[in-house]
C-alpha cells in the first residue's frame, strides 16, 4: 500500500469499549480453557463455553475460606448472593469428596453466580487434590484468632434447632425470649479437649496451606465483631487481581488553581509513562505552530480572553487521538473548567477512566499561588515559603505571573467554585483527594487508584440484604 | 517451551489455528463493538461452524466494496491494473498472510482488477477459515 499522509489513529471508542466489557479477560478466559481442555472441535467448545458463562454484565467470583469455628450468621448472609457453602466434612477419602465438589461446581448456577467454599481444604494434600481437579479459587480468605478466643467461642456456642442459626452465650445474643428458650447447647462431644485437639491439627496443617495459596491469600483477624469481619472479607473479595491487559489509563485531574494538578500530573506521567497534557500549554503550542487552528487561537490568547470551547476541543481531540496517547494513556488537567466543556469532552468519546478532584480551601490556594514565582533564566518555579530560591541573585530576577495576582486569583477561584458542584455531579465516580497534604502523599493516593483495577460492583439487592 | 505439556499446548493451538481465530474474533469485536459481546461472539462462532460444514463463506471484516476501494487507492489514474509490488503490499495490509505469489499478469507486472479481487478474496477466505480441515 502506498504510504498515506494520514497517520494511524485508533479510535478512542475501542479503548473505552475494551475497558468496559473487559475484552482482554474474556479472551484470556477462552484461551486458557482451550489450552486446558484441548477439545477436538474448538469452535463447538467455545460456543458451549460462551453460552454457559454468565450473561453479559454479570460476573462470577470464587473463593474459599479457612476458619475453624464457628460458622456464623454473617457468612450465611453472604450466601444470599453466592451459591452455598460446605461445612467441615468427616473423614472421607480425598478423591471422593473432590469429585463431589467438582461435580457440584460445574453446574451452571455455580458457573454463573460464583461459589464460596468454607472449611475445606484442611490440609495441603486436599488443596492439591482440589487443584488437580481444576477447582481454582480466585480469593482465599484465612480467618485467624488466638486459640483462647476460639475455645471460648466453641464452648459458648448455642444452636437454634428451628432455624439453624448459631448464637453465642456472650457474643451473639438471640433477639427474642422465645428463641432463647429453645436454644440447645453444644453437642456432647464438643468439649474442651476435643476443641484443643482440633486446633492442634489445624495449626499443623495451616502453614503448608498458606504456602499453597500464597498468591491469593488474605488473612483477616477474626477476633472482632462478626459484622466487622464480614465487611473486611467482602471488600477484599470484591477487589480484583491485577490483569495483564493493556494498561493505558486515562486520568483527569480537576481542582482549583494552586491545588497541585500540574505537579501531580507530571509525577504520574513520569512514573507510568503517560502523556501529560496541560490544556493551556497545548493551546499555546498550537498557536505557536502556525497551523490554521493556531491562527484562530492566537488573538484569544493575546488578548487574554478565554478561547471558545469548540476550538479548544478541536486542538485537544487532535492531540488525544494520536497513537502515543492511545497506547500509553494520558493525564489531562486544567480542562474541563465547567460542565459544558465536560459534556463536549464526553461527546467526543474521550472518556477518562479515572477522575480525581483535588480539594482545598481558599486560604491555602491563595497562599500557594500568591507567593509563586518563576526564574526566567532556568525556568525553575519557586515559592517564597515552601521552596525559596537558593540565592540572592536568583531572588532578584524572579518574576510573577500576572494571572497569579490577588485580584485575578480571586476571580479564578470564584469561577472554579461556581462550576465545581456541577462537575462533581457529572463525574459521580470521581475520587476526592485532599490537596493540602504534602505532594508525595497525594501522589501515592492517586497512584493506588490509577494502578489498581476498579472493584467489582455488587448488585444493589445483594448489598441491601447483606447490610441488614 | 521447555516442558512437554507446554509443547502439547502449543501444538494444539497451531493445529487448530487458534491464534488466528482469536485474532479475527477480537478484530470483529472491536470493529462492531456490540453491547453484548458474548452473544455476538456466539453468533460469529456459529457462522464459522456453518461455513466449515457447508463450505460457505466464513465471517470476515472485508467485503467487495472494501476491495474495490483498496484497488482504487492504488490505481488513481484508473489504468485498470497495478504493479506486482503494489499487489503484494496491498494483500499484506489486508492481513492476508499466504497469497498466490504468481497471479496472472505477474510476468508483465500488470495485475488487473479482476485478478486482484480474485486473489484477495481467496486469501481472505483462507485467513478467516480458522479451523483445521
From TrEMBL, chain A:
Question: What Pfam families does this protein's entry cite?
Answer: ADK
Q: Kindly list the residue ranges recorded as spanning the membrane.
A: none
InterPro entries membership: Adenylat/UMP-CMP_kin, ADK_active_lid_dom_sf, P-loop_NTPase
**Which keywords are on file for this protein?**
Kinase, Nucleotide-binding, Transferase
> GO molecular function terms here?
AMP kinase activity; ATP binding
The entry assigns this protein to a family as follows: Belongs to the adenylate kinase family.
Q: What is this protein called?
A: Nucleoside-diphosphate kinase
Q: Which gene encodes it?
A: AK8
From TrEMBL, chain B:
Q: Name one Pfam family in it.
A: EF_EFCAB10_C
InterPro entries in the record: DD_EFCAB10, EF_EFCAB10_C, EF_hand_dom, EFC10
Q: Which Gene3D superfamilies match?
A: cAMP-dependent protein kinase regulatory subunit, dimerization-anchoring domain
User: Which GO molecular function annotations are given, in alphabetical order?
Assistant: calcium ion binding
Annotated EF-hand domain ranges read 62-97
Query: Which N-terminal residues, if any, form the signal peptide?
Result: none
Name-wise, this protein is EF-hand domain-containing protein
**Record organism:** Denticeps clupeoides (denticle herring)
